[in-house]
Every structure is written in C-alpha cells, then in structure tokens.
C-alpha cells in the first residue's frame, strides 16, 4: 500500500503498533505499518521521532516532496548487502558491448510504446498524422539495431521523443496548450501533469530497484553522474508511455482535469481558491491506456474526434515562463487516478499470471537483475500491444 499525505500542518505520530496522521485533535488517517510499502509526504507535515523510528524499523520507503510535487529526498530501507551484485553492476559499466545491448533494448521498448500509442491516437481520432509519425519512429527502431555506440542510441531516443511529443497533442479531445515537452518549469497544464506523474513513477521505480537489491546509481542509457539515479531513469523509460502518458490523456479526455484546475504562479500572487470538486471517473476504462487495448469486455469510453487548433489563447499563455500548477483538489484527483492505474491488473506473459502495473514495475527490476547476473541474456521491456 502506498499512502500520500498532503494535509498541511499535520503530524505523524506513533500510537501502539500503528501510526496516526493528526492535525490538532483530529485524526485524518490510521496507518498500519504492516500494510505499508511507501509513504509520500508533501510540504509541511511533521513526523515525530517515534513514528520515524517505526517507519525505519519496518523498512518503509518514506519520500519527501515539496507541496507542489517536487522531489526533495527520502528515508529508505538499508542498502542491499549484496556487494558482489553491486560490484558487477559497476564492472559492467566498462563493458561496451553489454552496455550497448542493454541500452538498445531499453530504447527499443520506449520507441515501440510511443509508436503504439500514436497508432491508438490515429485510430481513435481518425487522424492520419499520428500514424505517419508512428512509422517514422518505427524507422528509427530499425536504424537503432545497427547503432554501434551509446551516443547513437541516445540520439535515436531523443529523435523519437521529439517526434512523439510533437504529435502527442493530437491525442487530446480538447486543445490544452501543449506545444512541446517543457520540464522546468512546466508552462501549461499538460506539462504540469506529466512532470508530476513522472515524479510519482520515479519513486515507484526507485522502490522496485531497491527491492531487487540493485544499486540505483549505475545505469547504461543514462550516463552516470554525481547523485543521478541512472538505473532508475533507465527502467522508467518503458513505463513513461504505458503509465504516465496514457494516464495524462485519460485525465484530460475524461474531463477529470480541466483548465480551471490549474493556475499560473506569478511573483506576488497568492494561490487561487479551489475551483471545483468532483467524483473521479474510472481512468482505467479509457482504451488508450490499456496495456493491450482489450483487457476488459466492458464497453469503453468512446473517444470523439479532435479538432486541432492552430492558434488559441491557451497557446499564447503557455509561451510564458511562469510555472503552471495544480489546485489542491485536482492534485488529489491525480494521486487517486495514479494509484488506480498502478493497482489495475492485466495478464503479463513473462510472469505467466495477472499482475498489477505496480507489480510489473517490481518484476521488471528483478528481470533487470537477472540480466546483470547473467541469468537472462536479453532485457525484455514491457510493451503496449
């Protein structure tokens, strides 16, 4: 179980064998530590010494975020004691052939998933352009097979991402001001949601890497750097499209998020009041986001045609440099939708059984370890079908 705590001014205290989230005399949550896998804390939330000791004693990954979702740090379980596995991870950094093979597998999976999502957009929108761009990505995949150095592999990944995000706006029912991927700061609603979901995803992948006993720093596609979780970033790549991008489309297309759920943060201007509250529809029923497109026999949400808008006030606003942020209630809806997605099960052939998306992240980290240890020859990323 993953718990998110966003009540500002709250305090986490220990009571008996469980924890309480309190503010004043009011108890907001009761946390049973034996059920917890991760606690994510946003903004001004205190933890007493006894509560912190309880979390550490039970090896519960505790993540600290700013109130608006920027990663700050974490208190994690003790490092894996398998020094021989860690030594092998670092030794393989100098094995050019191994690094090239693994990086190619990671990028091939990411490119394949991006192309698949573009093809789903083509079918849903009856728009030929995403199909054409998907074919361009497939051409990159064929060229990727002959890449003979890591820089070339990274170049194909970058070109594929540019094609993909240039076409991504065609997946939205309504024009949302998204022109290109902008990270710091996100200057439109779509980029704001993507950045938040990628941060959530990074935390889950990090936890999976630690569960597998791997060192999160040495990666192959992402060059090693001081303080960079290169392995976590590597393993995120195949899941960005599958989880975060499809969920972003669902959140906007199902009108779980609308323009009034966002505000532009300008110096000297306070946070606007909340716009609306609503019951969150089931984002997992959007067929664009399904792993194979047909997991459920129920009738899925029918995506209407999209009319692209070349020039709009939203596009003009997104050209500014001020960050676009989420209102509190919208933030909560994203958390709920993300956890709903991660707990959705589907049949996963490598495991031979149904797994949730969250379990598949853990499974893939274990699969990666087998590749590092030589038990598996090729890394097989998770693919949209």
What do you see in this structure?
The chain folds into two domains: 2-75, Ribosomal Protein L15, Chain: K, domain 2, CATH 3.100.10; 84-373, CRISPR-associated endonuclease Cas1, C-terminal domain (Four Helix Bundle (Hemerythrin (Met), subunit A), Up-down Bundle), CATH 1.20.120. It is built from ten helices and twelve strands. It has helices at 49-57, 83-92, 96-125, 128-144, 150-167, 189-211, 230-253, 313-318, 328-342, 357-373; strands at residues 2-5, 11-15, 18-23, 26-32, 38-42, 46-47, 61-65, 71-75, 262-264, 324-326, 345-348, 353-356. β11 (345-348) and β12 (353-356) form a beta hairpin. It is globular.
CATH topology of the largest domain: Four Helix Bundle (Hemerythrin (Met), subunit A)
What topology, given as strand order, has the largest sheet?
1-5-7-8
| Number of distinct helices | 10
Share of helix among residues? Answer: 40-55%
Label the structural class: alpha/beta
Quick recap:
With 385 residues, the protein is an alpha/beta fold.
Secondary-structure topology with pairs:
Layout: E1 2-5, E2 11-15, E3 18-23, E4 26-32, E5 38-42, E6 46-47, H1 49-57, E7 61-65, E8 71-75, H2 83-92, H3 96-125, H4 128-144, H5 150-167, H6 189-211, H7 230-253, E9 262-264, H8 313-318, E10 324-326, H9 328-342, E11 345-348, E12 353-356, H10 357-373
Parallel strand pairs: 1-5, 2-6, 5-7
Antiparallel strand pairs: 2-3, 3-4, 7-8, 9-10, 11-12
Helix pairs in contact: 3-4, 3-5, 3-7, 4-5, 6-7, 6-10, 7-9
């Amino acid at each position: 179980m993953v718990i998110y705590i966003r009540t500002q001014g709250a305090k986490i205290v220990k009571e008996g064998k469980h924890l309480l989230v309190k503010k004043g005399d009011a108890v907001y949550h009761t946390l049973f530590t034996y059920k917890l896998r991760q606690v994510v804390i946003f903004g001004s939330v205190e933890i007493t010494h006894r509560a912190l000791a309880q979390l550490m004693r039970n090896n519960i990954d505790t993540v600290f975020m700013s109130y608006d979702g920027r990663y700050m740090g974490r208190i994690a379980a003790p490092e894996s004691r398998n020094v021989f596995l860690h030594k092998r991870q670092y030794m393989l950094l100098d094995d050019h052939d191994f690094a090239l093979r693994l990086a190619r597998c990671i990028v091939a999976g990411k490119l394949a998933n991006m192309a698949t999502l573009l093809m789903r957009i083509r079918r849903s929108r009856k728009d030929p352009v995403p199909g054409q761009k998907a074919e361009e990505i497939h051409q990159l995949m064929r060229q990727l097979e002959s890449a003979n150095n890591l820089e070339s592999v990274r170049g194909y990944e970058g070109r594929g991402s540019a094609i993909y995000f240039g076409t991504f706006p065609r997946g939205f029912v309504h024009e949302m001001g998204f022109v290109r991927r902008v990270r710091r700061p996100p200057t439109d609603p779509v980029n704001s949601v993507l950045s938040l979901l990628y941060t959530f995803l990074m935390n889950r992948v990090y936890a999976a890497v630690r569960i597998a006993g791997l060192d999160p720093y040495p990666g192959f596609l992402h060059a090693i750097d001081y303080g960079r979780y290169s392995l976590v970033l590597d393993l995120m790549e195949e899941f960005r499209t599958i989880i975060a991008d499809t969920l972003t489309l669902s959140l906007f297309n199902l009108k779980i998020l609308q323009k009034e759920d966002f505000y532009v943060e300008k110096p000297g201007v306070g946070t606007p009041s909340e716009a609306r509250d609503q019951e969150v529809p089931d984002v997992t029923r959007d067929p664009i986001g399904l792993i194979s497109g047909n997991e459920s026999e129920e009738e899925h949400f029918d995506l209407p045609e999209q009319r692209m808008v070349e020039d709009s006030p939203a596009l003009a606003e997104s050209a500014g440099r001020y960050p676009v942020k989420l209102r509190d209630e919208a933030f909560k809806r994203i958390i709920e939708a993300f956890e709903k997605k991660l707990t959705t099960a589907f049949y996963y052939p490598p495991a031979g059984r149904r797994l949730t998306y969250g379990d598949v992240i853990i499974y893939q980290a274990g699969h990666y370890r087998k590749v590092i240890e030589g038990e598996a020859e090729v890394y097989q990323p998770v693919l949209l079908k």
